[in-house]
Amino acid sequence: MSDEELERILSSEESLTPSSGFARGVMAAVRTEAAAPPPLPFPWLRFFVGMGACLVMAAAGAALSVQADGMVRDVAVTLRAAWPELGYAAMAVFGSLALARFPRVFARD
Amino acid sequence: MGEPNEDDADLARVLAGDPEAFEGIVRRWQGRLIGLAWRFCRDRAAAEDMAQEAFLKAFRSLTTFRRESKFSTWLTAVALNTYRSRLRSDGLPLLGLPPTRTISVAPVALADLQEQERTEAVRRLVLTLPARYREAIIVYYFEERDLAESARVLGIAEGTLKARLHRGRELLKRRGAEKTR
After folding, report:
1. ipTM score over 0.90, yes or no
2. CA B150 to CA B133: how far, in whole Å?
3. Is B159 helix (H, G, I), strand (E, B) or coil?
C-alpha cells in the first residue's frame, strides 16, 4: 500500500449522524446526575486526626519497647521454658473448636 | 460544529445551576463525539454508548474547564480519555467480518465494492495497532490533519505526535502487506 493511498483512506472517513433519541437519552442521564445528591466529601479532618493518633501511638510504642528491652527478653525466656505446656494447651483449644464445629457442618446440609 | 459564544453561554448557565442548558452543548457536539467513538469501535450502538458516557463525564467535570484551551479541545480530550478507559476495561471491540457479497454485479459496481471493502479493512486495521499509535492516527485524521490541535487533544508534544504517526503508518503498511500476502 502506498503512502498516498493510506493517506487517502484515513482522511476520507465518513461522518456518523446521531440517532434521533441520542440527545434525549443523554439529557435524561444528565438530569438523573443533576438530581442525585452530591458525593460525600472525603473526611480529611478525621483522616488527619487518625493519622496523628497513629503516629503518636507508634512513637510511644517504639519508646516503650526501647525502655522495656530487658523485660521483653525475660518474657521470651519464660515463654520458651513453658513451650511444651503451651503447645498442649493450644492443641486442646483447637481440638475443642474443631469438635464444636463438626456437627454444624452436617446441620447445614 | 459548535459556536464558541453559544458554548460559553450554555456553560455559564449550567455552572449557575441549570442542567437543561447542557442540551445545547449535547446537540452541537453529539456528531463529533459519536464520530470519534465510532473510529475507536466501528460499532454504532457502542459509539453512542461511549459518547453518552463522555458527555456525562464532561457534565460532571465542567467546573474543571479552565478556559485555557478551546471548549471543543477540552471536550474532545475528555471524550478521548473516556474511550481510552472504556477500551482498556472492555478490551478492543470484536469486529465482524465485512459482509461477503455473492450477488452478481456489474464490473464497475464490483470494483466499487472491492474498493469499499479494502478501505474498511484498512480502517479496521488501525484498531489493531498499539494504543499510542492507534490514538495518534485516529485523532490526527479526526482533527482533519491539524497537528497542533491533535497534539493538544492527546496531551503530547507535536514532535512526539509526528513520531507516533510515522511509526503507526509504517506498522499499518506492514500489517496491510501481511494481510494481502
Report:
1. no
2. 13
3. helix
Is A18 in contact with B55 (Cβ distance < 8 A)?
Answer: no
Radius of gyration of chain B (CA): 19
Chain B interface disruption, residue of A6, A10, A19, most B CBs within 10 A = A10
- The answer to whether B31 and B52 have CB atoms below 8 angstroms apart is no
Q: Write phi, then psi, for B52 (nearest 5 degrees).
A: -60, -45
Check CB contact of A9 with chain B, cutoff 8 Å.
Answer: yes
A13 shares contact with chain B (CB less than 8 Å) = yes
* pLDDT, tens only, A89-105: 999 999 999 998 888 77
Whether the model clears a pTM of 0.80, i.e. scores above it, the answer is: no
Pick the CATH number of B4-90 from 1.25.40.10, 1.10.1740.10, 1.10.3720.10, 2.60.40.760: 1.10.1740.10
Residue A77's alpha-carbon distances to A80, A82, A86, in angstroms, are: 5, 9, 14
